[in-house]
Every structure is written in C-alpha cells, then in structure tokens.
Fold:
Amino acid sequence: MTKINILKEAEKIKKSFNPFQLVDVDNFHVFLGLFDGDYRKHRHPYDEFFYVISGLVELVMDRETIALKPGEAFLVPKNTWHKSAAQKKALVMLFEKQGLQSEFA
Amino acid sequence: MTKINILKEAEKIKKSFNPFQLVDVDNFHVFLGLFDGDYRKHRHPYDEFFYVISGLVELVMDRETIALKPGEAFLVPKNTWHKSAAQKKALVMLFEKQGLQSEFA
Structure:
C-alpha cells in the first residue's frame, strides 16, 4: 500500500460524475467524484456516504434538498431517489458497497 | 438524516483514540478519531481506512511507517499489526466494518 493524496488523485479525473476508485475497504469502495452540473436522478439498494472536499454540492431528494460545503457530509439512505448537482466543479469523497447497480428514474 | 459538519462533530470529542461514530453506511461505521500521542499496537480481521482532516499522523506497521498530512489517506489491510501516533492533536476520519474486535499486541 502507498498513501493516497486526495488532491493528486483528483487531478487524474477527466470526466465528471464518473466515480474514480481510490481503494477498497473490505467489500466497500472509496471513490472520488468530480461533480459538475447535474447528475441523473437515481437510487440503489445500499447507502451512499458523501463527504465534500471542495466546492458546493446539492443532494436533491424528493422531500428535501441538502446543500453541502467542504467539510460537510451526508448519508443518502438506501432506496432513496436522489440526484447530485454542483453549479461549479466540486470534489467529493464517496463511500459505498461494491458491485451494486443504480436504477435511474 | 441531517448533514454532518465534521469540525462541529469533532468539538464533541473529549477523549483521544476513542472512535466517535458519525454514521453507519450499511454494515460499516464512519468514525471520527482524535489522535493525540501514541495508541497501542493492534490488528483486526478487517481493513481500516484513514483520512487525515487536520494534524499529522503516523501509522506504524512492522515493515513501514506511513506519515500522513491533511488530505492524505491510507488503507491498513486486514490482519496488519499497526499503531497510530500523533505528536500533536490530529483529526482523522475512519471507515471500517461494524462489530469486529481488535487484538492488542
């Protein structure tokens, strides 16, 4: 194992809303995500943890919208329809179970 | 769910090396850890992911020592003897599987 420098890894990301895998933790993935604009509404049968490293992120769910700034985190519970949005580029660390598929609205 | 502000949560931590649970992500915990001084050498049969938010952290393993600064992360693989050390207070986000026990050296 070598250590992971989050900002250096982020430089490798060319495409927004395309999870960039940092490492596996048992049967979980740690991803970096570059959020830019609006992602499609979706849900999945597992929890998803978002931690904002830079930029401003909105998590839009049916009953509420959560606005996150750097240093803030949110858990989208399993089976919850959600979409992510960022007016400008934002960098997010994501933690979720491996191998499961999203259902798009 | 409400959003989690990491630094505000950190203010609630009174004791170092005593994982403070932020949220569960399926069968994983997200913890905050206040590292201050040296923790005991231990291992556990599951991976542990460390992400340093503030301060400087050393992860001392039998074959190598990894020094981490804010924005850096490291995975200690399962069954690897390790101890954590921080010369001054450091704040760390930790991801690991729920319910498993550490074995101390």
